[in-house]
């Protein structure tokens, strides 16, 4: 939870391994291409065990692993060439991620302006944190909000608190204030009332930890109920994610493993206390003792509740009369 946000997890994993392998190489740990390869492969396999829901990490690890195998088996391969190729690829991932986010922001903002009931007065609601603190920079769902704001086509952004770990009130709220985007915090249970009472909220925009082949989407717990209320109120429900979040091997949402997290996150509320003027992270128990707790981190939103999936390559919509997205056809058409 120190590193969070599916795209950021992949980038941090790739870059931290780049630092580690370079340090080891400088210390003369690798005598051959094979030894460097072995270390990189073992490390990538270990990194993949860290978070079960975020697919970007698996995708990044597979790409890096293929590259490692290739450089290690090339003519004239040495520890030098294997390490250098790995480091360069990890750094390129960071550069590409930011550009992908900017493209998501642009495609998403275009789509919302085109499909909103009144393009003159667009407010949006977002959930969890998908901004520069969850990605390499810029953000996915928050990238769309930034883009709308930059074009002066955003009236207001609302963000949920995102219980139990408050990524919305701690991180998204911080980013919105920092960017000077007019914004208001609500707690998760206020979303339906907001849509009823503020009809200019014309879209809910969320990120994704994984998108199945049919478009079912795993995202932060609470996303599913937001999609239901979006449908009820007839507004857009947009999923913003890089195409690396699409996992064609996951046929539908039923196949997605949902991470469950410790009860402490739910029974305690954490924040910052100023002790002797120094900001100090603090956690206080707010739930009754001995109560049972269920704390799934994610839920799955079925494709029929999603209006569009915005990727860096373009916007995916359903064919008329279909309930599901054809993510494979979209990826192949690119
Ligand atoms: C939860 O809060 C209690 C104090 O109310 C504290 O003693 C405990 O360490 C906290 N748990 C966590 C995991 O922070």
From TrEMBL:
Pathway(s) this gene product operates in, as recorded in its UniProt entry: Amino-acid biosynthesis; L-methionine biosynthesis via salvage pathway; L-methionine from S-methyl-5-thio-alpha-D-ribose 1-phosphate: step 1/6
Signal peptide: 1-18
Family label: Belongs to the eIF-2B alpha/beta/delta subunits family. MtnA subfamily.
Matches recorded under SUPFAM superfamilies: NagB/RpiA/CoA transferase-like
GO cellular component: cytoplasm; nucleus
Chief location bin: cytoplasm
Coiled coil: none
Active-site residues, as the UniProt record annotates them: 209
Protein keywords: Amino-acid biosynthesis, Cytoplasm, Isomerase, Methionine biosynthesis, Nucleus, Signal
InterPro entries in UniProt: IF-2B-related, IF-M1Pi, IF_2B-like_C, Initiation_fac_2B_a/b/d, M1Pi_N, NagB/RpiA_transferase-like
Protein's UniProt name: Methylthioribose-1-phosphate isomerase
Gene: MRI1
Any one GO MF annotation of this record: S-methyl-5-thioribose-1-phosphate isomerase activity
PANTHER family in the record: METHYLTHIORIBOSE-1-PHOSPHATE ISOMERASE (PTHR43475)
Protein location: Cytoplasm; Nucleus
Residue numbers marked as site, Transition state stabilizer: 128
